[in-house]
Amino acid sequence: MFSQFKNVPTLDVLRGISSTMNRIDLECVCVILWSIWWNRNLIAQKNESKNATDLVNWALEFLSEFQRTHQALSASASQPVVPFKSGWCPSPIDTLKLNSDASIRDGFHFIGLGAVIRNHKGEIVATISKPLQGSFSVDLGEFLALREGLLLAKRLNLNLKLAEVDAVAVANAVNNSEFVNCNANFIIKIQR
């Protein structure tokens, strides 16, 4: 059955199925195909693999997280600009603060994500920097950088109460009570 598609370029297959699907179903198919490709690379590089059910569930959760983030960023784009201070400001005593940023260059198909966690004296407690393959909007890149910083803090069991980002839409989306569902008093400030 699938042998007829063996020599058909992937883009042609996607164009063919996109004409028969709505946008949501097409996004699901694309993310599942991407997860299969990712799993294939995992097998080739690390001799590890996810089973089919876990792979599909992981892909659908990834898509759901992306859609929630995209929706939050779109909703917050029309919100007023939050006032900001210039320069790095220390956090309150005995408080850790996360600063995150993304580096995006036109024409390249990857972005750089970075985050640093400092104490109130400005001393570095933890840091992360990593490239991410793909083309992303500035706001989504900033959101991914913030996410990496938060994941770093979680891995290291660090109790963050404050984060600074330089993207208004990201700060507004995170501070939007409909978007964030947590008990902690967590503040995101704009830093330029």
TrEMBL record:
Pfam families: RVT_3. This is RNase H type-1 domain-containing protein. It comes from Acer saccharum. Residues 112-178 form the RNase H type-1 domain. One of its GO terms (molecular function) is nucleic acid binding. InterPro entries: RNase_H-like_EbsB-rel (IPR052929), RNaseH-like_sf (IPR012337), RNaseH_domain (IPR002156).
